[in-house]
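Hey all, quick one. A colleague (J.T.) asked me to put the DGJ job into the tracker so the inputs and the structure tokens live in one place instead of scattered across chat threads. No bug as far as I know, just bookkeeping. Sequence used:
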Amino acid sequence: MAINIYQDKIFALQTKNNSYLLKKDENGLLSHVYWGKRIDCIADFDETTQRSENSYHLHVDQTMEEYAPFGGMRYKETALKLEFCDGTKDFRYRLTGYEADENRLELILEDVFYPCRVRLIYQVYEAEDIIRRHTVVENFGTEDIVLEKCASAQFGLAGCDYRSIQFNGTWAKEFFRQEDSVRGGKKVYESMRGSTAHVANPCFILHREADEEKGEVYFGLLAYSGNFKVTVEATPYDWTNVVIGINDTDFSWVLKPGESLETPAVYAGYSAEGFTGMSQRLHRIQHRYLMPKKLADQPLKVLYNSWYATYFDVRCEEQKKLAEKAASIGVELFVVDDGWFLGRKDDTRALGDWTPDPDKFPNGLNELIDHVKSLGMEFGLWIEPEMVNENSRLYREHPDWIYRFPNRSVLKGRNQYVLDLTKEEVVSWMIGMLDKLLSDHDIRYLKWDMNRAIGENGVYGKHSAEHKMMWHTHMLNFYRVVKTLRERHPDVEIEACASGGGRADLGAMTYFDEYWTSDNTDPLDRLSIQESYSLLYPAKYMRAWVTDSPEERKVSLRFALHAAMCGSLGIGCNLNALRREELELLKEQITVYKKIRMTVQFGELYRLKSFETDGIQAVEYLRGAEGVVFAFLPAGRYGKNPYCVKLRGLRADGTYRVNCQGRVLEKSGAYLMEVGIKIQLHGDYDSCMIQINNMV
Ligand code: DGJ
């Protein structure tokens, strides 16, 4: 049983290795009492947790509440803020009941006077050591209730000695890992852009002296692609308070009589085995439960994307030539990026007019699609459905379909406006447009882009509380569009992209088959991005392309290939301009990748070495008896060779065949993990791939 309950007051969520315990305390508060290594005897927690109280420090503020409402002399960060029809802003709750089955617990908090109920819902994934939490707020009265904050979850961690990891970034610099101690006050990580964005990821990671192999790590990821807020607060009472959910800035939600609001879920866990333990728990839950089912168990195809080869200058004949080259090197999916639709010559025009441009495709898009198919590949297309340019037919016909304020000029980002998805006619148009595009053409993949943030939180003709419902309504309708499309076209693979990696979150994972990680394809930058990204998300969900060397740096094609082979491989070079040897190298490595991709995309991931601490980067993937290691040297150092890479996760008593830089070795797992493999990496931008095989 994953749920254990003691005397109707202690609730334990038990996973394979961990326990998460709650308690109805002496003051009737639902408090958090333990999260860590598994403890089976939960009766041991039947003791007072009461702290001494004085007029400035009341129990409500001191207690690690499981879901603290605003008010009642609470000054810590709270999870819920609401207003009843008479202006009362205080949710005074009692735990009035619970429901439990094998893996699910639901705790009911009810106001002592007003007809309002909060349901805290927990789903336990025992084998994966993950707890899923979300919250539902219900109005069962006859008057409106206005929610001003409704977080998905709150967590209390004993002690205030944590370090917090986040991923601050920007376009082309996604997943820039930052780490700080949490002492004294609050840290807030958030997005107010109407999307996940690059500046932070909707997650918390708090650790105590953790490294890749050891140390305690607490973590939680929010499954939401809109405005989010994560607050980490070191309280003065020696515990750390974490609140995670939809951002309450400019948020409100009117609950009419009989209505309820369900928050996005948080997937949370504890690892006593450092960051590897965290990543592997997260990767497993995503593979097993979150990725869209259709492709969850299948490896992603090697794709070619023409963006860096042609930018907006898409022309049928040139694309056909690219497709021929792509097929000849082993590509399986050919994708035309931005620039294929009516009048799109640059980024100032045409978004919204999603029909093939007759100047570029005089015989329609099907001519290219048929050609691609005749070469044995599938066809894919770029699209940015949530946006419109002023210079477009769609905008000229529907200038009122965008977010705007009546007496203000409309803000532009990348010359475009955001369509107002709170309007039902816009939602219907979008579903109809996408449905038609996919029905008229044999398109098997979409790269769904989003290249600007929402700037105007304006919805025509609405004001105050209802007005602020726009952000979340936008998200719900965005998900509805993608969900409807998937139902109608279940065979179409969809990639989430937002100016690179601005839409990498577990909310998007429910609807999209993969994420575009970054527009930065410089292999060295990319390896750092990939390393941080892998803390949260699996390699399969990380589209990685080899492109022509960007201007900053000339990097060998082999190094670039190896870097991209660490994820779901894509090719973005201008194949028409490559030399024969380069095409041959691409072909050779694509063949290799197809043999190892099950291991890379589905294997357990170990970060063995990092540029920052070790001068090289090495990453290992292990799946059953097969393993792959990639190692990268950015800049050679005289006299440094050989580099020694110790493997992880092997059976100490197993025997492994190691294929490394032309040598075939047979070694025990214990030797490979304790002594390691010696590799030679020379000069600047050298790399190698090692294959391992468990023989017995
Ligand atoms: C931003 C994406 O991240 C790029 O890969 C590319 O698709 C461009 N948009 C196209 O406009």
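Adding what we noticed when we looked at it: The chain has 16 helices and 38 strands. The two ends are 35 Å apart (CA to CA).
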